[in-house]
Amino acid sequence: MIVVCHLGTALDSSVVGQAFQVGVQLFLFISGYLYSNVKIENMKKWANKRFLRICIPCYIFISYALLISFILNKTTDYRMLILAMLNLQGYHHVFAFLPYLEQISGTAHLWFITVIFICYVVMTTIKSIETKIALTKNFVMVFLLLFLIITFCLGILGIRLDYILIYMLGYFYARYRDEKLSLSKVKVFLCIIVALVLRVLMKQYCDVHGDNNLYLYVVIPFSYNLLAFGLFKLFELLNVYISSFWNISLLRTPVLYLDALSFYVYIVHYQFIDSPFSLIHLTNNLVLNISLIIALTITSAIVLKYISEKAIKLINGDCTD
Question: Distances from the Cα of 145 to the Cαs of 86, 89, 152, in angstroms?
Answer without folding.
Answer: 32, 30, 11
